[in-house]
Amino acid sequence: MGRLDGKAAVITGGSQGIGRATVELFIAEGAKVVVADLLASEGEALCDRLGPDCVFCKTDVTVEDQVRNLIEVAVKRFGRIDCLFNNAGILGQTGGIESMEVDRFDRVMASHGRSVMLGMKHVAPYMKQQGFGSIINTGSISGIQAVSAYMDYSAAKAAVIHLTKCVAMELGEFGIRVNSVSPGQIATGMGKTGPDALEKAAVLRELNKTRQPIPRSGMPEDVAFAALYLASDESSFVNGHDLVVDGGLIGGSSWTERQRMSASVHGALQRQA
Ligand SMILES: NC(=O)c1ccc[n+]([C@@H]2O[C@H](COP(=O)([O-])OP(=O)(O)OC[C@H]3O[C@@H](n4cnc5c(N)ncnc54)[C@H](O)[C@@H]3O)[C@@H](O)[C@H]2O)c1
């Protein structure tokens, strides 16, 4: 028996990375899935491989008409919509506040904040009618801790996490749960496609090994399992929560780092004495 037997889900940004891993896991757990993405050939190939319970709907999640259509496609195809995973997103711009490009800033805000708002806006009427549903939005640890290197992205993710909590307070009364998942350093090809994406993911997989207390890189499947829990009935009393999946990265300094710091302070004091 699958943990999502009989459920229907929409997963945005499902053609690659975290979204694709979640599509594969949801299908393996018995769900029917509509995959939404701008990358049509990758999304269609994924659905061909996974069979008739997986359908692709080309969607730009920043455009209201396309998001409305996506939700309608899911309801028409599967007759219900148990879960919406608002996961699509793009990278922020590097550089400080003085070099911020306004168009790019708006695009980053729209890719994360507006898309999540639109998904929730258009799925809410269907979920209210059903009296149940689970909405999962992709935040980030950058939405919790300020990341000055990608300040537009960091601010957009903070908005996603906060909007999630606001909407959870509204829709909980209708039996709809709204939560976010905040990944840490995950080895994906984010911002790249095809072979370049594979190459970036492989590089990150190595680089990320020592960034957090858990001595391996975060993988797309780690986030997919968090989404699986939030989509399933196992989390039926979890609402307005941000589930951090970062191997302990923002929990504090690691044991080894702390010991090194204590040893250097101790050494400096001894030298002074
Ligand atoms: N990889 C990480 O370390 C990490 C960390 C924290 C949060 N996240 C978040 O996880 C989510 C998935 O990221 P990923 O690492 O899998 O990246 P990815 O680039 O591999 O996947 C993102 C997907 O979203 C799609 N997409 C982008 N803009 C879109 C739009 N306007 N409409 C429809 N689809 C669109 C892309 O085509 C792509 O398939 C993003 O929201 C990202 O911000 C990633």
UniProtKB/TrEMBL annotation:
Transmembrane segments: none annotated. The keyword ATP-binding does not apply. Pfam families: adh_short_C2 (PF13561). Gene3D superfamilies: NAD(P)-binding Rossmann-like Domain. It comes from the Bacteria. Keywords: Lipid metabolism, NAD, Oxidoreductase, Steroid metabolism. InterPro entries: NAD(P)-bd_dom_sf, Sc_DH/Rdtase_CS, SDR_fam. Belongs to the short-chain dehydrogenases/reductases (SDR) family. This is 2,5-dichloro-2,5-cyclohexadiene-1,4-diol dehydrogenase. It comes from Bradyrhizobium manausense.
